[in-house]
Amino acid sequence: MSHIPDPDGPALANLGFQVSRATANLPQTTSEALFTITGGRVLVSMLLGLVTTTIQAQANNTKLVFNPDGAGLQTTDISAVLDITSDPAGIAYAMPATSGNAMSFSHGRILQNNIPSTPGAIFAEGTINLNCAASNTGQVAWDIWYMALDQGATIVAA
């Protein structure tokens, strides 16, 4: 369930406001919006996905992408591809600490090196998408933590 945070409410332990997206099926050989950014720029401190239903056993190169609003702006990869074939429930994915790397992932343990050493990544208005190269069964729930850089900037679940 998504929510719009109270801009005067408390932020979560240096990560900012949290927005949750309910568990959903994987995109089927396409890109699907996970979160929508409106009202200006935001600093995303963490983006985390949790597999809730095992991913089908076939290759599926998956990546996070940013699709900015505005004429002439191009979609940009947030991460390199990660093959998520057969990932069981309980596996977690995270936005990489360094642009161009694959999503961080866990195998039944706490994610290693998933929190960037820098403050995070800055995004303008647009959508943060999950792009899947194949049509696999499986479900993932996503959470994002952010801080508004412009007054009125928010993120909501898509």
CATH architecture call: Sandwich
Structural class, by secondary structure, is mainly beta
Output the radius of gyration. 15 Å
Order of helices and strands: EEEEEEEEEEEE
- The first-level CATH class is given as Mainly Beta
Query: How large a portion of the residues is in β-strands, by DSSP E?
Result: 35-45%
Oligomer: single chain
- Provide the helix percentage: under 10%
Span from first to last CA? Answer: 10 Å
Largest sheet: 6 strands, antiparallel
Shape: globular
Count of discrete domains: 1
Q: What's the CATH topology label? A: Jelly Rolls
Please report the number of helical segments: 0
The counted number of beta strands is: 12
Q: Unreliable stretches, pLDDT < 50, 5 or more residues?
A: 112-117
Mean pLDDT: 86
Describe the structure.
With about 160 residues, the protein is mostly beta strands. The chain has one domain (about 15-155): Jelly Rolls (Sandwich), CATH 2.60.120. The protein is about 0% helix and about 45% strand. It is built from no helices and 12 strands. Strands 1, 3, 7, 8, 9 and 11 form a 6-stranded antiparallel sheet that branches. A hairpin with a 7-residue loop joins strand 4 and strand 5 (about 75). The model is unreliable at about 110-115 (pLDDT under 50).
